[in-house]
Amino acid sequence: MKKKITMKEIARELDVSISTVSKALNNSPEISQDTIDKVQAFAKFYNYKPNNIALSLKNKKTKNIAVIIPEIVHHFFTLIISGIEQKANELGYNVIVCLSNESFAKEVINLETMASGSIDGFLLSLSKETMAKKDFHHLREVINQGMPLVMFDRVSDEIYCDKVIIDDARASYNTVKHLIYSGCQRIALLTTPDYVSVGKLRTLGYKNALKDEGIEIDENLIVRVETVEELDGKVKSLFDTEKFDAVFGVNELYAVVAMREAHSRGLIIPQEMSFVGFSDGILSKYAYPSLTTVVQHGFEMGQKAAKMLIDRLESDHTDDSYKMEVIKTSILQRESTKPV
Amino acid sequence: MKKKITMKEIARELDVSISTVSKALNNSPEISQDTIDKVQAFAKFYNYKPNNIALSLKNKKTKNIAVIIPEIVHHFFTLIISGIEQKANELGYNVIVCLSNESFAKEVINLETMASGSIDGFLLSLSKETMAKKDFHHLREVINQGMPLVMFDRVSDEIYCDKVIIDDARASYNTVKHLIYSGCQRIALLTTPDYVSVGKLRTLGYKNALKDEGIEIDENLIVRVETVEELDGKVKSLFDTEKFDAVFGVNELYAVVAMREAHSRGLIIPQEMSFVGFSDGILSKYAYPSLTTVVQHGFEMGQKAAKMLIDRLESDHTDDSYKMEVIKTSILQRESTKPV
DNA sequence: AAGTGCAGCGAAATCGATTTAGTGTTCACA
DNA sequence: TGTGAACACTAAATCGATTTCGCTGCACTT
């Protein structure tokens, strides 16, 4: 086992001081070319790599950033992580992933453990429980300690920090208009409870679009689903009790499940019923028929969020004007809706 | 901004030495109860948290482990990560995620940057390029440095280390037998090139099952797909040129795409054609009809891998007998196959 | 009164790097 | 011959913790 070599050992072997080794490796002008060559050759031969921990301690920066997400088994979040990872690596940072599993307590623990030295800044998307509780003391605490925080997707107005979001209300508005223009009149909405900020905004966009098109809002067509378990049941009862010609799901799963239900009731898609989902993922792409979706550009969102965080880390002082980036969405027309 | 407080500052404020503070915080018996109370009260009031970096430097352990995977936008890998994260957190470790993006170069870079102090051990699943090149010097190097490595899913015989795998050959064998027992005779196989270890093993299992059941192997029914781009074309030409009554895909995507093709050709599933995929994910679950799959228990695999790594990290010495855990698979019968 | 033991605390080394403030030698120039 | 700059290098502080060893003062024994 060829152990790691340190500067101390190089210094001892070559009979110079540690400072000389350090400077030689950094090509300092105060070291003679002879010594530089000698030290660098020796270092290369023994595969010397500086110890990151020691550097972190000295420089007070770790070149690590933490991303805390509610869940990873979720295509949108994996896209975001890919984007974060790509951008962070490009800029010389590593990404530590923490999962809150939608739990407030775990979110707090993650923040606390990470905040004590392991990382330089946070990227965070709120857990459902945190949004429901509206308790953000843990976020304020890390911000107060001077640690930058960038929130993405699931954010809160109550926290002052950089943010990257989707314009959910507008995206939803556009989507519903798209459905209307394609000939749909009674559009059912499968959404989340209102404490999920994105669900709330998408619901808002839905209502506004109907209003603007002079279509009355029928609350019976709005179904709020809290957990995956109750999804099937709520969808079935919607089909049982209401008449409608389109379904808009605030995520792809909701839309796909509704589409399956329509399938099994023998409805022809999209002639008799249209379907649109939010957040384009593999489910939408490979559903049968393939699902028209709102593309959220998660990869880009991850990149932007990472860039904002690192910009702040590397800017000299804290300017206290926080930025808010809005990622544009687009509608990807596939087989589950009629052409406009 | 309430800055972080250090032991030094506590010591200065309370007019004791740093060593006393350290010992008081650790409830050392050589400090009087009075002093302990005083120090701990002060520390709590100023929300003192030890600096992890300093601890890492001193203890020569970081309590971080790195997991390097080829891709994250992949349900199986996200399940594994969830499992790793859960188990690692439970045992007091953080997880640093690195993506190789199926690239050899990036895998090497990830290993090198992580190995210089940031982490205590690796969890790794090989990139396609690495498997194709069969160049494992980077793995040998970190192992030689005394850093534990656990490989999972995509592993190599040439590296001596702990491993967690699926018994791919057997799983595939069982699946094909299942298809045969359900009445299928000509089973097409959608697989990867042989350099992908899991693809190779699954192909082997397929062949053995046919052999054991006295069915001749028809190489024309075995389609090797390298990239997603060529998937559609190869599937179409399979349908154009061959006759068969079942498709076995070595991942869920292959199976679902084939099923879509069958759909559009008006075939009735599963009466006229059956479909099975490997690695149960959302695609399988929400496909129409839902896809019968081989469940790989990725979460469990992640947990096992994390546990193996941490066990080795915390065992006193290196015993050089490496373990290999095999995760059992199971067949999840859904709508795309006939009951046996 | 001198020696012993212990409670309670502090000084300093250590982990592996960087960096500032010197130190010692050589050589040029007045 | 003496002075000072230039050069090449070193000692030591520093980052924030832990830990070993040593020191002080008091109580108690003999």
UniProtKB/TrEMBL annotation, chains A, B:
Natural source organism: Galbibacter marinus
In its UniProt entry, what is this protein called?
Putative lacI family transcriptional regulator
Keyword field contains Cell inner membrane: no
Where the record annotates domain HTH lacI-type, the positions are 5-59
- Domain of life here? Bacteria
- Give the GO molecular function terms: DNA-binding transcription factor activity; transcription cis-regulatory region binding
Mind telling me which Pfam families this protein's record contains? LacI, Peripla_BP_3
Print the keywords alphabetically: DNA-binding, Transcription, Transcription regulation
Q: Where is the HTH cro/C1-type domain positioned along the sequence?
A: 2-53
